[in-house]
Structure formats: C-alpha cells, structure tokens
Amino acid sequence: MTQTTAEQHAGHDHGSAPVRRRARGVHVAWAVGATVVLVALVAVRAVTAETGPWGIPNPVQDLLTLSTSVIIESLPFIMLGIVLSVLVQVWIPESWLLRILPRNPWGRRAVISLFGMFLPVCECGNVPLARGLVRRGFTVPESMTFLIAAPILNPVTIITTHQAFGFDDGILIARLLGGFAIANILGWLFSKHPQPMSLLSGRFAEECRLDDGHGHDRTRREQSLDLFVRESSILMPALVIGSLIAGAIQVIVPRDVLVALGSDPLYSVLAMMVLAFIISVCSNVDAFFILPFASTFLPGSIVTFLVFGPIVDIKMLALMRTTYSTRTLVQLTTIVALLSLALGLVVNYLA
After folding, report:
1. 135: which residues sit within 8 A by CB, 6+ positions away?
2. 192: Cβ contacts below 8 Å, ≥ 6 apart
3. I want to staple 183 with a disulfide (CB 3.0 to 4.6 A). Which of 47, 149, 176, 226 is the partner?
4. Exposed, middle or buried by CB within 10 Å (0-12, 13-18, 19+), for 16?
C-alpha cells in the first residue's frame, strides 16, 4: 500500500467510526422500540383475555389474539435466522461457501434451493439469511431461489406435512416438487435481469455497498454484534406491522366466504391462495392448520396453500420489503401466484 493510500485509508477509518456509532444508536432505538411494542401487545392480550372490567370489544380482542399468535410463532425463527445469518456472514469463510457450489447457473440454483435441508427455519428466519447470502457475494436471483425453496424443502416442514397428510393424494410430493420447481424457475427468470442489484431496496443496496468498504478494522465479535443489532432493528418492526395487518384482515374478511368456494377446481385454488396470503401461518405448522379443510377443499387447492403461503403472505411481504424493491416484490408475487395456480389446477385434475 502506498503512503497516500494508507493516509486516505486511515482518514477514512477516523471518519467512519462516529458514523458507525450513530448508526448503531439508531438501530438500537428501532430494536428497543419494536420490542416495547411487541411486549405491550402480548401484555394487553394477556390482561384483556379475562372477562371483567378489562374486557374490550370482540373484534379488537380477535385482532390482538391473531396478531400476537403470528408474532409469537414467528419471533423464535427470526432470531434463529438472524443468528445463522451472522454465522454465514462473519464466521464461515466465503471461499468455503462458493467452493461447494457448481459453476453451472442451473446447478448452483438447484444446490442453493436445497440449503434449507441444513437450515431448518421457517420463512421468517430465511429473510435475514437471504440478506446475508447477498452480502457474501451470492447474486440477488440466487438469494430469491433460496428464500422461496428453503421454507418448503426443510426437514421440519417435510415431517409435519407427512404427519398431516402422509402420501394421500400426492400432496406431500406435489408440495416438495412444486416448491423446488417454482424457486428455480423464478431464480432463472430474475437472472435474466440486466441490472440485478436494482432488484434490491435502496437501503439494502446501500448497506451492501458499505459492507464492501467497512468492517475490516473490527474484530469478528464486534462485527457479529453490529450485524445482530442492525438485522433486529430492521426485521422486528416489519414483523410487528405485518402481523397487525394480517390480524386485521382476518377479522374483517369472513372465513365462511372462503370455505364456500372449496368444491370448485378453479375457485378452490384461488380461495386457498387468498387464505394463505391472509393467515400468514408459519410453514413448519401450516400443514396442521390446513388439515381440517382437506375434507372440504380439493387436493390441488391444499397443495397451492402449502406452496404459495410460505412464499407470499402479508407477513413475508413486510419482511421481504426490507431487502427487495416494491417493483421486485410485485413481479415476484405475480410469478409465484401464476405458477402456484398452475400447480394446483394440475393436481386437481390428476388427483
């Protein structure tokens, strides 16, 4: 390194330290604020659940119950996902990650779509992991392939789906093959984008650019703490907001309307897509949630619920917005919806 370059680098470090401290303060404030709101929601739900002077109107009580159930169900997986993301970004050598992948793009995406077999977290926990993969040099389409396949192709989801349905009507097989196919088709489509980095949200793209020039003067422990605080401050508010919206829509939309559509090959699939979008239930337990509907709805609609729900729902869109642009999410939702619809119709006519 030349003297000039060394001086510039030293000056850059002196200037970046206060910036990092201010950024950490903002992230801590967001994380603490989201935690306070989260605890307040759970506390209000616990206090008002009992009858008496603390009773509140039933719709509001339902909103609190539905929202807090989504938060409580998702929060452990988000924390686990953040920890795994820090592990991937800071502690696992980049050369090791890239060495195990084939060079052929289709082969790379196929292997990436199977990462979920070794990272058994639900879709919420996969968002910070996908962000970590982009920071470690994976392409944006590859992060999408992982994000879509991982909640379906992981051992916990496979076991719970098998316990709920066994091999009846091919629901388990259709879910696994459908999830794998949709993830790889979507990854291939977005790989044709001329400017993949423009698929990211402006804030996350800026973070990726900053990662290229910062952090090399800090210990791994300091980098891990900074990443944990930053990811928590971004994802926890998104989880709280997404859960409240999902709970509100469930209160407003009567479920009987959806159930009435269950016997039609096309409308049953569409109804299950709407239900999956609204309910926002975790992929690790969604098979048990939908099991009571199996006697009313056709098999293809059940498969659509199990494939579409882990990829696109209210909670996931709120979380994915921290990483991808609104335009990207609209395109992603459209592609996944069309492919899930086709999968459901094929299963309905074959089963």
Report:
1. 89, 207, 208, 211
2. none
3. 149
4. middle
